[in-house]
Every structure is written in C-alpha cells, then in structure tokens.
Amino acid sequence: MSEAMPSRRAVIAGGVTGTAALAVAGYTPSAYADGHHRRPDRVRLTVLGTTDLHGNVFNWDYFKNAEYDDAAHNDIGLAKVATLIKALRRERRGEPVLTLDAGDTIQGTPLAYYYAKIDPITGGAAHPMARAMNEVGYDAAALGNHEFNYGLDTLRTFEEQLDFPLLGANAVDPATKRPAFQPYLIKHYRVGRGRTLKVGILGLTNPGIAIWDKANVEGKMEFPGLVEQAKKFVPDLKRRGCDLVVISAHSGAATSSSYGDALPYPENASSLLAAQVPGVDAILVGHAHVEIAQQYVENETTGQQVLLCEPSYWGRRLAVMDFVVEETRSRRGRGWRLVTATSQVLNSNAVAEDARVARAVREQHDTVVGYVNSPVGTSAAALSAARAVVEDVPIIDFVNYVQADAVKAGLTGTDAALPVLSIAAPFNRSASFPAGQVTIRDVAGLYIYDNTLLGVRVTGAEVKAYLEFSARYFKQLSGTGPFTMDQVTNAVTDLAPNGTPDYNFDSVAGLDAPLTYDIDISAAPGSRIVGLAYGGVPVTDAQQFVLAVNNYRQSGGGGFPAVSTAPVVYNRQNEIRQLLIDWVIANGTIDPAEFASVDWRLVSGGAPITVS
C-alpha cells in the first residue's frame, strides 16, 4: 500500500516526519534502490552532510524574535535537518551510513554567542551545538574558520564536549608542522559475507584563519593549503587500506580568495582538491554558503570524476551522497571498486523539527531568547539600516561614534592628540531601532558579527586609498537617476565575481569633526573619492589619523589597503557588539542629534544622484 503525500495544510501546520519527510524534502531514490544494482557483489555507502550551521539549532530568528523566514521560504536549524538524517538512516537500515559536517558551527547566532561570552562553556556550560550534534550522532566534522573566533580555549572545550572528532589536517603546530587536531578518521563497515568497507574521512579547513583570527592563532597554529596537505594525507589513507576517501572541506568550490594575494593558498579550493589530488572520491564542500546539488571535477592525473556537493548553510539543506561500490578479487585479496557516485540536496523547510534534538537545547534557547529581549535603553527616533548602502544613515553613524569614542579613550602618548576616524559597514540592511525601548536583540541585529575593536595609525593618503577601495562596491553609472539600489550597488570585481557583498562597503566618519567626501559613481573605480575633508579642511596625504577598525579588517579581511600593515595603537580585545550594548546601557538614550551628520553622498559628475 502506497503512503499518501502529506497535504500542504499538514506542512504549514508544522512539518512532517519519517518517510513522508523525505518525500516533501525532494528526495529522489537512487538507481540502487530499484534493484538493478542490488547485487550481492555491490554495496551502497550513503554520506549525509551539513555545513555552515553557524549556531542554528531551531528555525528561529533571534534578531526578529520570530520564526525564521526569507523570500524563498527556507527554514533553518539542525533540529529540522536531524529529521531528514534520521529518516534516511531508517530508509537505509542495514547499509553503511556516514554523517559529516564541513565546519563553521559555533559562531553566528546569539545562541552561540551566549555560550561563548555570557555563560561560557569554558566556565562549565555545555555548548548547545555540542548537545544537538551529539544527539544527531555525527561521525566527524571539519573545522571551519569561525570555530576560531572565540579563541583556542573555547574551541578546545567545544572539542572535548563532542562525541565525535573535529578534523583539521591543515591546522598545524608551528614548531612540528604536525596537525594540531585529528587529521582524519577511518570508518570500518561490515557489509556481509565477512567483508569490510573502509572509508577514510579527511578534514580540511580554511587558510584564511591565519588572517581573520590572527589575534587568536598567531604563533600558536598555522594553516597551510588544502591541496598541499591533502597530497600528504590522502596517500596515507590509501596505504591504510581505505576503499573510499571522502574529504570534508571548509573551502568553496570556486577558486577564489577574499584576501587576494595576502596568502599563497586559495580560500576556496575544493575544485582544486578534486583536480589535483589523486585518490579523492568525493568532497563535502563548505564555507561558500551556496547550494551545489551535484558537481563533478575531473582529476588531472587519474581522469576520475570526483563528486562535489554543498548543502547551502544554516541547515537549509541536507547533502545526500550515494556511492555504489563493487567487490573485486585479485591475488592480493578482495577489495572494492567505485561504480557510481551521485548526490542530491534535501530541503528542510517542510519537515518537523526532531523532538530529541529540540528537547536537548530548548532550555538554552529559551534562556537566550529572554536575554536578547532584555531592554537596555531607548532611542529618541526610529533608526534604520535599510538605505545604508546608498546614503549616510544615523544608525551606522552610531556604530562609528561608539567605536571612535572607545578608541580615543584608550589612546596614549602622541597618538592621543591625533584625530580619530572610524569605519563601519552595513552588515544587516534589515536592522533597525524603534523609537522608544531598545533591546539587546535590536543592537545585536545591527552588529551581527563577533568582531573586536582595534585602532591603527594611518595617513590621509591611506584614508583616501581605503575609501577608493570601498567605493568599488558601486557600479559605474552616468546620470543622476533615479536608480534602484540594485542598479547602483554590489558591483562585480576581480575579488568579488558574484558581486561585492554589503559587508565590504565601509563608510568612514570622524569623531570630533566630520570627515566628508563624495563618491562619484560615474568615474572609474580608483578615482571616485572627491572633496575629502576633515572638519571642512581638505585632507593632505601626510596628515595623520587614528582609524578605528574591526579585527576582520585589520587582519586583512576583504583585502582593504593599509590597515593590515598600519601600526596598531589600540587593541583591548573589546567586542564591538558588546561596546554598543554597554554604551546604550551607560547613556540611556540613543539620540542621533549627538552623533549623526551627513559625511558622504553619492554623486555623478558632481551632481547628487537619486536612488529609490
């Protein structure tokens, strides 16, 4: 008797489970299931994969205090993905099933932040992601770059709380050059008739950690290239008798780097891994936050078609990778030959959350919901970041003011006499403060990253170069409009082939006097900053400033000029989001009259443009 498809009403009411969950998630049974490949000399291995969970257990937007939703009606969270994982394990009962993650687990939501900073796991708390992932029953997870955001003590504590290994073959000790984490895992599956299938799982992370989290890892850990380390460890896995080698790689498929040539290793190297390292059968891809249902890359040495799959991010999708192997016999004994490798991604938005995973984390989730909804002060006016990419808005001025004020208060010696500037980017265009009561959630929604604050000494020439680099964010257009935001913003560049993200558009503001400038989008990138002045006086090349920056920028993130090599004159490891919260608590009211001014504007040939 066939099982009826669930109705749309049932889906809307809260999701489905079991076999029905697979159906509504878009599951397509592989050819193996139709009996054609189900021969006694053949076995199917299933690899289930997630990546870039970023602290999401529930389908919840902590910044909106509501269920998560987006234009495509995606759902998020490990609790929903767990329903699909468990349904597939049931569907393939008796067959070998491997569950992996490709990194970026313990940062990204207030839930993750709370148990890193407010009630830290280093003080005895259990990490909610450890609880959830242990309940799911992962076999292994690769390290992501965001695993290092809270320092090595937090990461090591998280590692201790897991029932499975964190893999990182290219996170190495600087002295010995040996992996500081377990490099790989070998799984042995008994598959009948006295046979064993051996699967090697190699974990690789992102070399950019050396830049992005320099303050946490410098002198303690190094991060060589993924290809270079895979060439060392894949042969080792083969020598140890692995019939299949799967890599869990926190590195995108497109060969590109946000840090330009600051490192000799590409940031997104999964396609290079497939092409340049013989012996790899498949790669679970992470880091890039894209969906790759099935992609093949030909190995340059063997000609093998290596399977790549990336299941989006935040738990929106589950990767399902199927490998059919066939038994071989020779004078050296029995072995296995890969026959087919295919993959698909399942959508979590119509399934129910897994009750056991939800129960494991519910109390911590409720604690954090209460925390983020705590009032910290008031706002004298409604403030919004919606137009922050096309005009100077007070809510970004607020960030710049708090950052610059904190840096100025900490300067000493001759640096204390220098004018202080600050950079800020529109991380979240949907962020806003209501007129009236402001909560921690409101502030956290404005500054969604766990960046810390630094101050660097720069010249006027370097400030202008920095602004010119930032102005690459805009497309080159003539005329004064009206234009739509999409017509003006997110320009494609050599470093951003898919369009410059909002977080790489920085505006710069002064503390004690305004820094004013026009951005002429009719001009070519590199010659767009016009009329740069501080306190109404043109900025000279030799003039000196202190510039408040976040650690991501100062460590080279985004490839902005000067700041990564400029002298650091302030670094107290203060988290910027907490500085914003503390400022509101101390001052009571956010009044834009105290800090807001029109410092920059978009022009075309000197005339202001209109953006609708």
From TrEMBL:
The protein's annotated catalytic reaction(s) are:
a nucleoside 2',3'-cyclic phosphate + H2O = a nucleoside 3'-phosphate + H(+); a ribonucleoside 3'-phosphate + H2O = a ribonucleoside + phosphate
Q: Which Gene3D superfamilies match?
A: 3.60.21.10, 5'-Nucleotidase, C-terminal domain
What positions does the domain 5'-Nucleotidase C-terminal occupy? 376-564
Query: Which spans of this chain does the record mark as coiled coil?
Result: none
Q: Please, which domain of life does this record's source organism belong to?
A: Bacteria
Please list the cofactors this protein needs: a divalent metal cation
Assigned protein family: Belongs to the 5'-nucleotidase family.
Name of protein? 5'-nucleotidase C-terminal domain-containing protein
Give the source species: Nocardioides endophyticus
